[in-house]
From TrEMBL:
<keyword id="KW-1133">Transmembrane helix</keyword>
<feature type="binding site">
    <location>
        <position position="193"/>
    </location>
    <ligand>
        <name>substrate</name>
    </ligand>
</feature>
<dbReference type="InterPro" id="IPR000242">
    <property type="entry name" value="PTP_cat"/>
</dbReference>
<dbReference type="InterPro" id="IPR000387">
    <property type="entry name" value="Tyr_Pase_dom"/>
</dbReference>
<dbReference type="GO" id="GO:0048666">
    <property type="term" value="P:neuron development"/>
</dbReference>
<dbReference type="InterPro" id="IPR016130">
    <property type="entry name" value="Tyr_Pase_AS"/>
</dbReference>
<dbReference type="Pfam" id="PF00102">
    <property type="entry name" value="Y_phosphatase"/>
</dbReference>
<feature type="compositionally biased region" description="Polar residues">
    <location>
        <begin position="342"/>
        <end position="353"/>
    </location>
</feature>
<dbReference type="InterPro" id="IPR051985">
    <property type="entry name" value="NR_tyrosine_phosphatase"/>
</dbReference>
<feature type="domain" description="Tyrosine specific protein phosphatases">
    <location>
        <begin position="201"/>
        <end position="279"/>
    </location>
</feature>
<feature type="domain" description="Tyrosine-protein phosphatase">
    <location>
        <begin position="11"/>
        <end position="288"/>
    </location>
</feature>
<dbReference type="GO" id="GO:0070373">
    <property type="term" value="P:negative regulation of ERK1 and ERK2 cascade"/>
</dbReference>
<dbReference type="GO" id="GO:0005783">
    <property type="term" value="C:endoplasmic reticulum"/>
</dbReference>
<dbReference type="GO" id="GO:0004726">
    <property type="term" value="F:non-membrane spanning protein tyrosine phosphatase activity"/>
</dbReference>
<comment type="similarity">
    <text>Belongs to the protein-tyrosine phosphatase family. Non-receptor class 1 subfamily.</text>
</comment>
<keyword id="KW-0256">Endoplasmic reticulum</keyword>
<feature type="binding site">
    <location>
        <position position="273"/>
    </location>
    <ligand>
        <name>substrate</name>
    </ligand>
</feature>
Length: 454
């Protein structure tokens, strides 16, 4: 046990040093600067025919690691194969599908022999559509998707609610070969955009469940991991999982979290989007080492850790206002990051934050909205997307009424803008003809006068 504690000392000491110096933004910026020297290109993503297929203009797949579709009119999809050889892990990181890329998404799952989809976002977050609803709305043959463009059908065969995440099993049928395959979706429903789960405990239980399914094993195709852009929450999941595997194989002292993140960023840009996500990764790796290591004797009080699954219910209140995605790769927050709550196994990692420290709800004023980073595509403007999860403190009926009211207000505003625009265009049209005629008479008069005069 003493050896195990000594092995964990390096990362814990590094964690404490960064925390005591309040240096998470500095470390995060340093990682961003190192990535700016990478020579990788995104030429395919920037081709005119492929630009509409990107959810965000500044989140593009590198050419050397992008996933190539083989049975499609276009071989492009915004996805990268991220490899971590030391952990014997491969992941496909991708954006949340757009309305017109759902077929591409499922074709990628089929062609890459993926056995799991890890969805780390909700369909709608903070009244913004983050991902198109890409799976059947119900169980059974009657609800299945028929994707004629890629010659696949997708049928949902089961669904299980596990409190803060949901699992669904799908059967994909290939209409060309008449083969079928089952794929499981792990849908983490309480991880806020640009934020972190309220504790690593529930996240580690989710990771344990994914691992036990065999979806991460090297014998099957790489899991498809996505959030909205496929870099923030997705990158956090993959970094924590890979580091814990390396710790299991090589020991805690062999892991350099920042170097592993830099290595993973060579396959997909911008993995981990905020200093807070980087800090949470350290925290989850330290806690995961103690929970997953069979030789580590756990404190009996661990079960009473304040990191409980109950806390996950209120995560929606915690996320900071989202920065623009491009700036999130390099810019540090204007304020220090908040302290991390105490855990039975992480109690010794607490530090005294400076008086000006703030909670994750108390961030700098909201910067420009992130819509500026998204393409002008109808998929991000849809108002008829289904709502996937009820929020804490509200029953289903109340939530539906509130969502309906919000939707009605948005539609009303859009209609008013449309009416105002139509009036303006009508006014321009009504003035155009008289002005044209008048101008024509004046011009004709000038011509006639000039002719008569000469």
């Amino acid at each position: 046990m003493n050896d195990e504690k000594m092995n964990s000392h390096n990362i814990e000491a590094e964690y404490m040093d960064i925390a005591n110096r309040n240096a998470w933004p500095i470390i995060y910026q340093k990682i961003g600067r190192e990535c700016q020297s990478y020579p990788y290109t995104c030429l395919e993503a920037k081709k005119p025919q492929n630009k509409p297929l990107n959810r965000y203009r500044d989140v593009n797949p590198y050419d050397h690691s992008r996933v190539v579709l083989t049975r499609s009119e276009r071989d492009y999809i915004n996805a990268n194969l991220v490899k971590m050889e030391r952990a014997n892990r491969k992941y496909i990181l991708t954006q949340g599908p757009l309305a017109f890329t759902v077929g591409h998404f499922w074709l990628m799952v089929w062609e890459q022999n993926s056995r799991a989809i890890l969805m780390l976002n909700k369909i709608i977050e903070k009244n913004e559509i983050k991902c198109h609803w890409y799976w059947p709305h119900g169980v059974g043959e009657d609800e299945k998707f028929v994707l004629s463009d890629v010659k696949l059908t997708v049928e949902q065969i089961s669904e299980e609610d596990c409190n803060y995440y949901t699992t669904r099993v799908f059967r994909i049928f290939d209409m060309e070969s008449s083969e079928s395959r089952e794929v499981i979706q792990f849908h983490y429903t309480t991880w806020p955009d640009f934020g972190v789960p309220s504790s690593p405990v529930a996240f580690l239980e989710f990771l344990k469940k994914v691992r036990s399914s065999g979806a991460l094993d090297p014998e099957v195709g790489p899991p498809v991991v996505h959030c909205s852009a496929g870099i923030g929450r997705s990158g956090t999941f993959c970094l924590v999982d890979s580091c814990l595997v390396i710790i299991e194989k090589e020991g805690m002292e062999s892991v350099n979290i920042q170097q592993i993140l830099l290595e993973m960023r060579k396959d997909r840009m911008g993995l981990i989007q905020t200093p807070d996500q980087l800090r949470f990764s350290y925290q989850a790796i330290i806690e995961g080492f103690k929970r997953f290591n069979p030789n580590f004797k756990e404190d009996p009080k661990m079960e009473e850790s304040i990191y409980s699954t109950v806390a996950e219910e209120n995560e929606e209140e915690a996320p900071p206002p989202p920065p623009p995605r491009a700036e999130s790769l390099t810019r540090a927050p204007a304020r220090p990051l908040p302290a991390i709550p105490t855990s039975a196994s992480l109690g010794n990692l607490n530090y005294t934050r400076s008086p000006e420290g703030s909670s994750s709800d108390d961030e700098p004023p909201t910067p420009p909205a992130r819509e500026c980073s998204s393409p002008a595509s109808s998929a991000d403007d849809e108002d008829d997307e289904p709502i996937s999860v009820t929020e804490s403190g509200e029953n289903g009926e109340t939530l539906r009424r509130r969502r309906t009211r919000e939707l009605a207000e948005r539609v009303s505003v859009m209609k008013k803008r449309a009416r105002d625009a139509e009036r303006w265009h009508a006014l321009k049209r009504s003035l155009y003809k008289p002005l044209t005629i008048t101008f024509g008479f004046i011009l004709a008069g000038i011509v006639i006068y000039t002719y008569v005069k000469h």
